[in-house]
Amino acid sequence: MKTLLLSAFCTAALLAGPARAQDQPDDALVPPTSASDYTAAQLDQVIAGDWRPAAHRARDVYRHPKATLEFFEVRPDQTLIEITPAGGWYAEILAPLLRDNGRYIAAETRPSADAEARNDDNTLRKLFAAHSAQFDHASIVAFDPKAPVLGPPASADRVLTFRNVHNWAMAGNAPAMFNAFFTVLKPGGVLGVVDHRADEGATLEQVKGSGYLPVDYVVKLATDAGFVLDGSSEINANPKDDHDHPKGVWTLPPTFALGSQDKADYQAIGESDRMTLRFVKPAAPAHAGSSQ
Fold first, then answer.
1. pLDDT tens-digit profile of 2-59?
2. What number of H helices and E strands is found in the chain?
3. In the Cβ-directed half-sphere of 55, how many Cα atoms lie within 13 Å?
4. Tens of pLDDT, residues 254-284
5. CA distances from 243 to 37, 103, 210, 222, 251 (A)
6. Residue 243 domain-assigned (yes or no)
7. What 8-state DSSP symbol labels residue 213?
8. DSSP character for 251?
């Protein structure tokens, strides 16, 4: 029965497809043999989408979107919440991927909170409006970072956050955010975290303000909220990054906080060294008997 359902999903989804990068001849459509094969094919399609600006595609070599999303076990039939997607780098991939068979939700800080939040919200809305064929089913929800509510409890299959935890650590609301992730995820749901990685053994106080974070600090935030660490990956590692720069992670591309000063050297390093962590919300325990 499970095989039949998988086959039905793959066949129907293949016919519908995400918002396609380009039309393909019928003989190019090879039926997938599994959900993972189907997801991989759809990721290839949306990552190649012509709605993605050239400057964003150029960062694929540092951000590894396909491998990262496969590690987070993202599928096109899921309900997925991306936390503060800013200008929409990952939204350009995720929203089209989920358009036909799932649901993409961008969770932004309440626009009235600060000017940066208002700018991010406007940028995302402009992106969605400019490419309605890819983003017409995407939605945006606003939350208060001091008391975040991201949606109905147990309503999401995936919550993903890319390079945001360091901001919450500096603002002091990281525990509240992780608690909100736990609440909105279904039992068995996955929280995916990518962020700048500090030197092993560094403390939060030593690196606070640099953008880098100790891995054990992020793991503790998640496990304190109730998550279980399910895996870590070196997908987004960068051994060229020694984590020691005049203006922290913002010294490196794409920000280049020092402007033209030593820019070639920082370009040669590339983007920051990053942790990639997968957490799972434990499934609800089986109903306990009354024998005890």
1. 344 344 445 445 445 565 444 444 445 555 567 888 999 999 999 999 999 999 999 9
2. 13, 7
3. 6
4. 999 999 999 999 999 999 999 999 999 999 7
5. 36, 36, 9, 23, 10
6. yes
7. B
8. G
Burial class (CB in 10 A: 0-12, 13-18, 19+), 140: middle
3-class SS string, 104-122? EEEEEECCCCCHHHHHHHH
Residue 170's CB: how many other CB atoms inside 10 A?
14
Amino acid 98 reads: L
Q: Give the lowest-confidence range in 29-43, 94-108, 197-211, 245-259.
A: 29-43
Containing structural domain, residue 123: 53-280
The percentage of residues in the chain with a pLDDT greater than 90, rounded to a whole number, is: 76
Residue 273: Cβ-neighbour burial (10 angstroms; 0-12, 13-18, 19+): buried
CATH of the domain at 221: 3.40.50.150
Residue found under tokens 């939605």: 139
Alpha-carbon torsion, ordered 227, 232, 238, 243, to 10 deg: 40
Q: Is residue 34 part of a domain?
A: no
Is 7 among the domain residues?
Answer: no
11 domain-assigned: no
Total number of domains constituting the chain = 1
> Which residues is 161 bridged to in the sheet?
83, 193
Distances (CA, A) of 52 to 4, 56, 91, 272: 35, 6, 10, 22
Measured distance CA(207)–CA(232) in Å, rounded:
21
Alpha helices in the chain (DSSP H): 2-16, 35-47, 54-57, 60-63, 65-71, 91-98, 115-130, 132-135, 165-171, 174-184, 204-207, 215-225, 263-269
Is 212's pLDDT higher than 80?
A: yes
Whose structure tokens read 């909105």?
Answer: 184
